[in-house]
Amino acid sequence: MNLIRRGNSSLPAYRPGAVEDQFGRMVESMFQDFFAPLAQGGQWAGEGAATPRLDVSETEKTYEIQAELPGVNKEDVKVSVDGQRVTIEAECRSANERREGETVVYAERTARRFMRSFALPTEVDDGSAQAKLENGVLQLSLPKKQGTEARRLTIQ
Predict the structure, then answer these.
(1) Which helix (H) or strand (E) holds 51?
(2) Residue 45, burial from CB neighbour count under 10 angstroms (0-12, 13-18, 19+)
(3) Is the pTM of this model over 0.70?
């Protein structure tokens, strides 16, 4: 019998068999991401918040992420990394600002909140992670943590 140690998750994983194909991992990740807010606090953390669109690419040493956050100032963005889980929160406040003496004739833009949380395949080295907001696009460069591969234990 062999034991394989894997990273801890906030949710217990149900795995009737080994999920080795890419589609299976995607479905598993989708369910973990869907139920993670309930496991962490009992309520949906992102209620009323828009979900920013993401592009995630992987190099040998990093994950490169681009998230659309239109109209958001860099002071209003919060990014947190906890192991494999990345959470992006932002707020666009400037849309509701009015100057004294100004009369609004027509307004479609409103203040918005953005919230997105997702898990990456491996843990991230949050100490050397970098973030940049430019032209409404948040760019994250998240280095992979070394030594996060599954470790096989020898039975004595």
Answers:
(1) none
(2) middle
(3) no
